[in-house]
Amino acid sequence: MKSNIIKYIFIIFAIGIIVFAIYKMNFQDNGQNTANVESTTQNSSQDKESVLNIGISDFDNINPLVTKNKDIISLSTILYEPLLEITEDYGIELKLAEECSKSDATTYLVKLKNNLKWDNGSNVTGEDVKFTVEKLQEGESVYSDNVENIKSVEIIDGNTIRFNLKKEEPFFEYNLIFPIVSSSQFKDEDFYKSRIAPYATGMYKVSAATGESMELVQNENWANPNNVERNIDKITIYFYDTMGDAYNSLKIGNIDLVCTSITNVEDYIGTIGFATKDYKGRELDFISLNCEDRILENKEVRQAINYAIDKNKINSSVFSNNYYVSSFPLDYGSYLYDKESKSSYNEEKAKEVLEDAGWEYRYGYWRKTENYTTQYLNLNLVVENSNKTRVKVAELIEEQLEEIGINVSLYKVSNSSYKNYLKNKNYDMIITGVNNGYSPDLSYFLSKGNIANYENEEITSILNEVKNISDKDLLKEKYNRIIEIYEDEVPYICLYRNKSKVVYSIRVTGNINPNNYTAYYNFEDWYRQ
């Protein structure tokens, strides 16, 4: 009997253990499943994050009219809007303006869109436009040149403004890309010394700032003409003393994006976990050929020089392939030049062109006899001796031209002498450069009095026509003809232009397509994974 009781107790105890074990296993399973659900939910919410962190160095002022910082100027396009803005292919389109028309050679009328608001809810008016122009004319803004030719600004009514120019200016509309600021906000401020963030009209506004960072949030008063939905709710801009500090922060994941003109940025951050978008800069170096020189007035000689120069070798030897080979002044991405820029290098073609033009290569020299007078193909090439990069380029060009028998005397001159050569145009060839504007105006290169002493009646006629053409297709047709003549007559030899880039974490997703105007096109589509 006693043994049976013990046996029953043992069975009950065993059943209890089994029941407890089953309960425990179910509890753990449920706990694990709950954890998995929570993890899945968390991962799902992280698929599309609404916060973006950007790094810049040398921050000075968030006011887009006061700052000298290129990154702030680029970023300001999602904060502060202009009357007109530059498109991804360097066209021009309306922004705050509803209309922009040319009344005559020196008069433009601009009408603002209705119901434009600053981020504080007040109305944007013509007074704000007039105030902005006046402040730009007073100071030393990066946009001051844009308004230099404006004689006066008249407000026709609250939303219509008349710009009166001092003289006619081709493609003046491209000057109206400066951000507009509020006149009432700054009426009691020393504009160029003020540290307050201007009211915004763009997608975002400044919500907070410290000495180390600035926070941007969505601007609920943005006009939002296309009713787009913004993926990014908040942007934090972190300020760094140097770009090296910014690169380190990007590398360890504290920020998501930087803009830079450093071509070897991969040496700082590596390549794993990052993507880059390169774009052509506006700094163009070229050779100006004096078209009034007794030898260079012959286009065949200019063509031969162009064929003899190996731009790819220059890019490789001097810039480690970190620059872009250039072919035309508008090849920085303008819709008016859609060809591929490439080197025209072809030694045999260079010799063939000279021979077809009556030049003869004898005893190591090219010579040509006309009217009992013999010319030898001897040319000078001027370069500024303090610009060590251009000196290296000039030395390579000297070698390349001499390889096909064109004798070159290289003049490495002082800064003052170099300026005199340019001013007086008393050179055969000179290496120089420009910082291209956004406008497709080619007056500097091709109008009367240009530095190459180049004249072509048809090009002059076309340049006069395009000043009054706004239709993009017709403009493209006209520019195609200019390009065709330019490539045949070769008044200049474009060499190379700089490269800039946006470097960003692979977690940043969207249509990232930067140019010199801004890195933030299509920003409403960006998000962070």
Describe the structure in brief.
By secondary structure, the chain is α+β, with helices and mostly antiparallel strands. The protein is built from 13 helices and 22 strands.
Give a description of the structure:
Helix 12 (457-466) runs antiparallel to helix 13. By secondary structure, this protein is an alpha+beta fold. The protein contains 13 helices and 22 strands. Helix content is 31%, strand content 25%. It has helices at 2-46, 70-75, 126-138, 243-251, 266-269, 299-308, 311-319, 347-356, 388-403, 415-424, 443-446, 457-466, 472-489, and strands spanning 51-57, 84-86, 92-94, 97-104, 107-112, 150-157, 160-165, 204-209, 213-218, 234-240, 257-260, 274-289, 324-325, 360-362, 365-370, 373-376, 378-384, 407-413, 429-435, 492-505, 508-509, 527-528. The strands form six sheets. Strands 11, 12, 13, 17, 18, 19 and 20 form a seven-stranded mixed beta sheet that branches. The chain has a four-stranded mixed beta sheet with strand order 1-10-9-8, covered by helices on one side. Strands 4-5-7-6 form a four-stranded antiparallel beta sheet, with helices on one face. The longest helix has 45 residues, at 2-46. Strand 8 and strand 9 (213-218) form a beta hairpin.
- The radius of gyration computed from the alpha-carbon positions, rounded to a whole number of angstroms, is 32 Å
Structural class: alpha+beta
End-to-end distance, in Å? 72 Å
Number of strands: 22
Name the helicity range.
Answer: 25-40%
Unreliable segments (pLDDT under 50, ≥5 consecutive)?
1-46
Give the biggest beta sheet: 7 strands, mixed
Mean pLDDT: 91
Count, helices: 13
How much strand content do the residues show? 25-35%
Rough outline: globular
